[in-house]
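Suppose you are handed a protein chain with no further information: no name, no annotation, nothing but its sequence. What can you learn? This example shows the usual starting point.
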Amino acid sequence: MKVFASLFFAFTAAVASAAEAPFYVGTYTRPGGSQGIYRVTLDLESGKLSEPQLAAESKNPSFLAAHPSGRFLYAANEGDTGPSVSAFAVQPDGLLKPLGEKSSKGAGPCHVWVDATGRNVLVANYGGGSIASLPIKSDGSIEDATAFIQHTGSSVNEQRQKEPHAHSIYTDSTNRFVYSCDLGTDKVYIYRFDAVKGTLTPNDPPAGSVAPGSGPRHFAFHPKGGFVYVINEMASTVTAMKHDLKTGALEAIQTISTLPADYTGTGNSTAEIFVHPNGRFVYGSNRGHDSIAVFAIDGSTGRLTLVDHTPSGGKVPRNFAIEPGGHWLITAHQETGDLYSFRIDQQTGKLTATGSSAKVPAAVCVLFPPKTH
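A reasonable first move is to predict its three-dimensional structure. Written in structure tokens, the prediction is:
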């Protein structure tokens, strides 16, 4: 009976765990507000969000990335004074143990990414207009940068594009190329990447381009390859691009607005973009219109067609994420400091609000980490 009881409780615990998905929230910290990185749990049956729990104190951990093993987490600690990348070990209870930090090599680090081998953290520095690669040690801590590249150039907007502003950084599915959206130059820079050495080398061709004044911010790969999607902060558009997996080259094939045709407001800017795991839909966030734009993907051409606009729930949806199973989308709002959950229709891509929300001050990033091995 004791053996049966033990097996029963182990089974029920496993079922409960399978019905939940924990995620982390990066924030801007301030006195009386956020204290760092928070942990929230999503109920995969109802979409309900748990009460947020402080996972680790950290200064302005504005963007987060997870190690492919699920054992470590990394944060871009944004700021012009002492900008850094910090490392954390994920504890059995989901809380985070600090493992130290290293310089991001440039002002205003705003985006981090871990390559597929788990050997390097890549960081984009918005204020400095630069990118860097920092090696990861076996214990999850990080070392000084092994690669640093300073972007150069400008574009047509004299207020925001006088100089480069690297806004994001990613490896592709082959882990051979690194891509960095630069808002200041209207380029998506392409680099050859050596994960063993942690080095970055300009590619040939060196970049893909969006329309002048667009301000490329974030970037999403199609899961089947062949296409990528760039969300342009300043123009409130998405640019679809052909993606050559062999050469790394990018070619713009379409640019489409993220806003309704009858929108008359001013001051909107976009933030995050994701391709649904099924490869059929693209989602992008509007700050100002405060919505998630939904697009359908033509599987043969990669081009987009607008499906819907869904109110994001709060003000200034700085970020959102799709849970790995593709059934739920979580929005994070910088101004109202809250999270909202939405059910994703698998056939149409449309979003339905669950009515569940959680309060996290100055929430600016949502990260679903891989399960710990």
